[in-house]
Automatic annotation (TrEMBL):
The protein's name in its UniProt record: Lipoprotein-releasing system transmembrane protein LolC
Membrane-crossing residue ranges in chain numbering: 20-43, 230-249, 265-290, 310-336, 374-397
Keywords: Cell membrane, Lipoprotein, Membrane, Transmembrane, Transmembrane helix
GO BP, sorted A to Z: lipoprotein localization to outer membrane
Chief localisation class: membrane
Species, as recorded: Lacunisphaera limnophila
GO CC aspect terms: plasma membrane protein complex
Cellular localization per UniProt: Cell membrane
Domain MacB-like periplasmic core intervals: 22-237
Domain ABC3 transporter permease C-terminal span(s) in chain numbering: 268-401
Topology in membrane: Multi-pass membrane protein
Amino acid sequence: MPWPVYLALKQLFPTGRVSFFTLISVVGVGLGVALMLVSTSVMGGFGYQIKRMIIDTQGEVQVRARSLIEQGGPVETALAGVPEVAAYSAYAQGVVMLEFKRRPAFPAVQGVDLERIRDVIPLERYLTAGSFDDLDDDSVILSHLLASGLGVRIGDMVSVYTPLMLERMKNNEVLLPREVRVAGIFSIGHQQLDSSTVICPLRLMQDLYGLDQMVHGYNVRLKPGADPDVAAAAINAALPATAGALTWFEANADFQAVLSFERNMIFFLLTFIIIVAAFSITSSLLVTVVRKTREIGLLGAMGGRAREVAASFCVQGLFIGLTGTAVGLAGGFLLLHWRNAIVATIAKFTMGPEAFVKFYQFTNLPAHTTAKDVVIIILFSVVASTLAGLIPAWRAARLKPVEALRSE
């Protein structure tokens, strides 16, 4: 073992045990690493969860138009000719009023093509009651919080009021509400979607809004491995001028940008914890240099070179960085594993779990850790800890043996 490494270990473990300085330094780095890992994973989890929900409910690409699109017209011909497209399904959307036993609700409604929707959107995955096979032109599927608020169960009949009724009243016509059966209840896991969403057959939606054979757009599922940006560009090149294709990210660009900004800002702010820990390592090693000035001078007098003396202090910073990073990663992944239990406990004694769901829109705290984030955290913490030993190393290397031996 090179003597600078041996000297570094002897200073870190002077009596064969972990010194107080070493313990505090390792804990400081470990706390910084754990907080950085947890924060980036949770913020990444929000982004990943939202991405999955968007793709599962809209597809990777969505075709929209300034006005209505003719179902089965040139848009479908264009989509069928793009190699990256695996499947597509027409949709029409709007807002209606539901009434059940004099309880009103105003959810968003989306009509889907029953023959093609399964190839694009896995709705059956989110059903908690009922069956997708039972959905017909006289039935709907409700989100579970909406159904709970109305007190609706499978098989109940609900009344649907649409804006078309107001249009007919202007012409002195009366359009009665549509009575439909509840064929299923679904839960996606997002508060907003689960509290105000209705899914119905496309033909029923066209009747409710008087669309005839027109639709509002198409949800598009791409082939595995296809790049959404490349596919959207190819679709746009084939579409008529009245329609355009957007990727899932472009359709929700503002929200995704906010999430990315918050994630980066939290990561940036938490880096100061490791920087503070690095300064504590620097100050502790500087104290060691002052206390062991005569020993350092003796090493120089025995033939030790300045860079070897400096290397022993850099090794100490490297060891603290590696150990603290390992401890921080272990603690961070442990916190992520028990995150929902921890959040539930905190919410229980503060705002309550209902407020967490209301404001953050998720029933569980999501987390998604990428290898890139872990590598960045490891490199930053190890490099910062190693650099923390440079100033003490430079101070020790500048000591002249004769002057150091005279030190009291």
